[in-house]
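Bug #77: duplicate submission created two jobs. Keeping one. Sequence:
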Amino acid sequence: MTGAAGRSGGARGLLRAGLVFLAAVQFFVGCWALLFPRSFFDVPWVGMGMSYNAHLMMDYGAMSLATSVVLGVGAVTMRQTMVRTGLAVYLVFALPHLVIHIRLLHHLTAGQRVPLLTALTAAVVIPVVLLGLTGPTRRDTP
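Kept job's structure:
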């Protein structure tokens, strides 16, 4: 194995654990939104006062499941390119997602804002930290 696998045992274990965590969260959220779209939408920080659209909720669920696959493959193979791709895919969603919710906070109570912003900020910080654990760029071998 090359790339991320070349890191020290502790860093490699932390990287793998982080990937598994992110993949599991995406899998859980994806299944929920895909199989029970109304239930997912009814969470106050999901619907945020907007009209329900089952199609969009199920599409979001399917996209989340796809993201969980990319992160999961990275966790299993620990190939640097796959790990970085999975984390980049996650960040491309997580950062705009945080910004969108910051702009829509007026729909939430103060008690809902704090946990939401904490979770969404962590969703950006965790993959950034994990990217730092991937080490210097190496060429993956087939």
